[in-house]
Amino acid sequence: MNKLKKLKTALIIFLKYPELGRSKTRLAATVGNENALKVYIELLAHTNLISKELNFDKYLFYDKVTAHKMPWGDDIYHTAYQLESDLGGRMQNAFEQLFDKGYERIVIIGSDCYELTQEIIEEAFNKLNSNKVVVGPAKDGGYYLLGLSQLIPQLFSDVAWSTEEVFSSTIKILKSLNLSYDTTPILSDIDTEDDLTEKLKLLIS
């Protein structure tokens, strides 16, 4: 951890303020908006739990400008907002904002990976000490985490988002650019009813 303290490091968390009808829409299609909101609130609580003790600057990037904020502590989390764009454009803009602030190692996560842990996030930052990129593959073919030590625009413009090719396309881009990369464990995102863990199922039973 001493090496990490010497580098200016930041964690980006993409999230939505939890509101009925705006949370986990694919999940809501089968379990209803109220149940989807219950699940998302639990996912947000988990995200807070695994990130609040991390010894990095932390930024909550909300999907829209809103007067509402998560009550996680302004002394722990900075507030920022995503650009209106596709997922790639929004992620690139978030990375650009923080690289422009002088950060040298940046990791982005979402708020829908119930298997993600504080240790895996710390592992990702450690891997950035010897790699340009670190990627956390998801079981659905996407990824739940991306870490960069420099901005790589191709990672955000040359990927078909919301497909099972996201992770493999990302790796192909990295290989074509001859950039060093590493990965973290394969985990599951919570997108549909089939993804729910037993604990999350109890919330809507």
From TrEMBL:
The question of whether Transferase is a record keyword is answered with yes
Organism listed in the record: Pedobacter cryophilus
Q: List the InterPro entries hit by this protein, alphabetically.
A: Nucleotide-diphossugar_trans, Trfase_1_rSAM/seldom-assoc
GO MF terms here are: transferase activity
Which keywords accompany this UniProt record?
Answer: Transferase
UniProt feature coiled coil, ranges: none
Identify this protein by name. Answer: Glycosyltransferase
Gene3D superfamilies from the entry?
Answer: Spore Coat Polysaccharide Biosynthesis Protein SpsA, Chain A
Q: Record keywords: Transferase included?
A: yes
